[in-house]
Write a structure and sequence with these properties.
Layout: H1 27-37, H2 46-59, E1 63-67, H3 70-80, E2 88-91, H4 98-105, E3 109-112, H5 124-130, E4 135-139, H6 150-160, E5 163-167, E6 175-176, E7 179-180, E8 187-191, E9 204-208, H7 211-220, H8 229-235, H9 253-263, H10 266-278, E10 287-291, H11 295-308, E11 314-316, E12 329-330, E13 338-341, H12 347-351, H13 354-367, E14 372-374
């Protein structure tokens, strides 16, 4: 390894940029989308149901309900959790803003509970302290592919009559104590954004084992209508009722065609990623290095250095208690800022050894007087 950093004239650790995340699209995906475009249905057609059934089977869930994006899927989950105005949803500050926003969408108030410093997932002991008579749901987030403490969340929820909505945007294909993510919480949301394991361009999915919740999710994503177009056509009547307020959160057949094709490749994509990442850390999704007080003054310097090394990354700076408009209640003593680097298919990670990457990143931080606390 060169002695000098690339920003100082040394040789970069890579010849080309390692992206933080990039979709993998092959000829099978293209043909699947083309077939959908040439079919009778561009939306509300048979590929939506086929994708939902395949997705449910892949995680072992009874139901999977497709949405136009992960945020819409979270909104649907919060809606069917029956929030009343002023009810509270307890979640982690270490997540994207959509996890808290979905509570606000249904008239609730997001409340933050601190994370565990070892797993970076929500601390259930902190959740217990945050529960009040107004609490309606707990929203744990699977961080970096590592599931939250779901059994403990479910036990606490059962004690207080709460709903558990798991944000599993990062953890399609993960298991928790021998059980597949997507089969454990009352409602589990997966993201189908291009940087996730499987993509539909934009998209989301909610899995559940509750028949009634599945019916309500499908109704909510379709304007609150009690029967979709294909159901009405099958029974030979145009008539329908709008039985509740809903949204137009449908995922198209074209997108579902892509999702079906992508889903078939998920096991092959997960295997090399697990092998590479497990060689340096016990996490199953990406490299995460926790740093003490890194980003306020040094973040741009670190970003410049890593870009020169041709390593793409994402800085997890804005924990939710730093988002001014949310004005959320709850713990403020969250864990330190995070720096995350990821490659979905494992190939890019394999071209640079994990040890080389970790050592180089450590040197980047030490150059600016910061210590890596955890790999």
């Amino acid at each position: 390894m060169a002695d000098r950093l690339a920003v100082d004239g040394g040789t970069p650790v890579r010849d080309r940029l390692l992206p933080y995340g990039r979709q993998v699209i092959d000829a099978d995906d293209e043909q699947a989308v083309l077939a959908a475009l040439r079919s009778d249905y561009l939306t509300t057609g048979p590929r939506v149901e086929a994708f939902e059934e395949a997705f449910a089977a892949s995680v072992g869930a009874r139901h999977a309900v497709a949405f136009c994006n992960g945020t819409a899927a979270l909104h649907g989950a919060a809606h069917v959790a029956n929030f009343a105005p002023g009810d509270e949803g307890v979640t982690t500050p270490l997540t994207f803003v959509a996890t808290a926003n979905c509570v606000r969408y249904v008239g609730g108030t997001p409340v933050l509970a601190d994370i565990r410093p070892d797993t970076l997932t929500i601390d259930v002991a902190a959740v217990a302290k945050a529960v009040t008579p107004r609490t309606r749901a707990v929203l744990p987030v699977d961080y970096a592919g590592a599931p939250a403490d779901l059994d403990e969340c479910l036990a606490l929820a059962q004690e207080h009559g709460l709903v558990v909505i798991e944000d599993a945007a990062h953890s399609l294909g993960a298991t928790y104590r021998g059980r597949a993510v997507g089969t454990i919480a009352d409602l589990t949301m997966f993201s189908l954004h291009p940087v996730k394991h499987v993509t539909t361009g934009e998209g989301g999915m909610v899995t559940t084992s509750d028949d009634d919740l599945a019916v309500r999710l499908k109704r909510f994503r379709n304007h609150g209508i009690d029967a979709d177009a294909r159901t009405r056509a099958a029974r030979g009547s145009w008539f329908y009722d709008v039985v509740e307020t809903g949204m137009n959160y449908r995922l198209t057949d074209v997108q579902c065609a892509l999702g079906l094709s992508q889903l078939k490749k998920l096991p092959a994509w997960l295997a090399p990623t697990h092998a590479v990442v497990m060689s340096i850390t016990d996490r199953q999704h990406d490299y995460v290095l926790k740093t003490a007080d890194l980003l306020k003054k040094q973040g741009l310097l670190v970003e410049s250095d890593l870009r020169n090394e041709k390593v793409g990354f994402k800085i997890r700076e804005h924990t939710l208690q730093r988002v001014p408009y949310l004005l959320v209640a709850g713990d403020k003593e969250v864990a330190a800022n995070l720096l995350s680097v990821r490659s979905r298919d494992g190939k890019d990670l394999g071209t640079m050894s994990p040890q080389t990457f970790a050592e180089r990143l450590r040197r980047e931080l030490e150059t600016h007087g910061r210590d890596v606390l955890e790999e």
